[in-house]
UniProtKB/TrEMBL annotation:
Gene3D superfamilies: Homeodomain-like. This is AraC-type DNA-binding protein. The chain crosses the membrane at residues 6-26, 33-53, 65-87, 96-116, 122-143, 164-181. It comes from Sphingobacterium wenxiniae. The keyword Protease does not apply. Residues 246-350 form the HTH araC/xylS-type domain. Pfam families: HTH_18. Keywords: DNA-binding, Membrane, Transcription, Transcription regulation, Transmembrane, Transmembrane helix.
Length: 353
């Protein structure tokens, strides 16, 4: 009992502290989304505080247990709202309030003196796991769409592809699996409890290691999204596309803007003298590449020149990636392998033979 109480206390306390840090926006980015992730973390802490009270036989604290139980069905809706606000910060949170209807439905059940049929008790007991499956699938779909979208306006997708929140989702799913397993395999509860604590530590780390999702202000996000999504709309004539393409390629050759690791679609559009919509249309229609493919193609060609130049033998592969405009070794390796068909290390070994 002492072991369980310690684990549940650490989990509940850590999540409660995390919820405060997120709600007061310690990361200094994604303010509205962090509010809901903080509320999600708070309700998750309530689950562990309830487990703590059960472990120390404090069932007589009926009002407190009712409060702790009430927010259980709001954990995943809060996470889902936060995810949507990370992806679309320009949308108001009121757009997603319908997801909290099950939580409101739970309130009269907990406060009233109802005798539920066996099926109703079963639904109450396992509805959280149904939510977990539903929101896991839905959230993964949204994250996949987001990754496809960001490659159309940034060259460093690794920083803003929400991989950290994908890991949060995975941790929440694992917590659900552990909880479900603990119901049917109580002999493994010491291992399950230890895994709970490990999951909460990882959850807290990823929640606080987030970065800004978009390199522009929130009111500019819809403009960029509309520009990169509506590629089939004819915005320029064939002659205009040809003219702007020539201007773009000449600037890429002369000014080498791809060596700037912060370059993105709005910045490049300003440099070449086009609107975001026009540049996106030229890339899609005139060149047939996404912004990510276009910029990183130039960077990889620059990196290959550095690798092939014997005067650069003292450069490490990481230094070559930095000199080529990448700010992430992972992004460099991924882009290089996509472009060349092998890793930079293997390419270097090949040219040295």
């Amino acid at each position: 009992m002492v072991y369980q109480a310690l684990i549940y206390g650490l989990c509940g306390g850590s999540l409660f502290l995390l919820s405060l840090l997120l709600m007061f926006n310690l990361p200094k980015v994604n303010k509205q989304a962090n509010l809901f992730l903080g509320i999600c973390s708070f309700f998750l802490s309530c689950v562990f505080i309830q487990l703590l009270l059960d472990a120390v036989n404090a069932e007589e604290q009926t009002p407190l247990l009712f409060f702790l139980e009430f927010g259980r069905w709001a954990i995943l809706p809060c996470f889902f709202v936060a995810l949507n606000l990370y992806i679309s910060p320009e949308k108001p949170y009121t757009h997603y309030l319908i997801h909290f209807l099950p939580t409101l439905f739970l309130f009269p059940i907990l406060t009233g003196n109802y005798t539920l049929p066996a099926f109703g008790v079963y639904v109450i007991r396992y509805f959280l796991y149904f939510q977990l499956l539903l929101y896991a699938v839905w959230s993964n779909f949204l994250l996949k769409q987001h990754r496809l979208s960001v490659e159309k306006f940034t060259s460093q997708a690794g920083n803003i592809d929400l991989n950290w929140i994908q890991k949060l989702l995975g941790i929440l799913f694992l917590l659900g699996v552990l909880s479900f397993s603990g119901r049917f395999f109580p002999l493994f509860s010491p291992i399950v409890d230890a895994l709970y604590l490990l999951c909460i530590v990882q959850y807290s780390y990823y929640a606080l290691s987030q970065t800004a999702i978009y390199p522009v202000s929130n009111n500019q996000v819809p403009v960029i999204k509309e520009a990169v999504i509506s590629k089939d709309k004819e915005r320029l004539t064939a002659d205009q596309v040809s003219l702007f393409k020539e201007r773009l390629l000449e600037m890429m050759k002369q000014d080498q803007p791809y060596l700037d690791p912060t370059i993105n679609l709005p910045i490049l559009a300003e440099q070449v003298g086009l609107s975001v919509h026009e540049l996106s249309y030229v890339l899609n229609t005139g060149i047939g590449l996404s912004f990510y493919q276009f910029i990183n193609g130039y960077r990889i060609r620059h990196a290959r020149q550095l690798l092939e130049n014997t005067a650069n033998e003292d450069y490490s592969i990481y230094e070559i990636s930095i000199r080529s405009g990448f700010n992430s070794k992972t992004t460099f390796y991924t882009a290089f392998k996509q472009e060349v068909g092998m890793t930079p290390k293997h390419y270097l070994q090949q040219i040295q033979q």
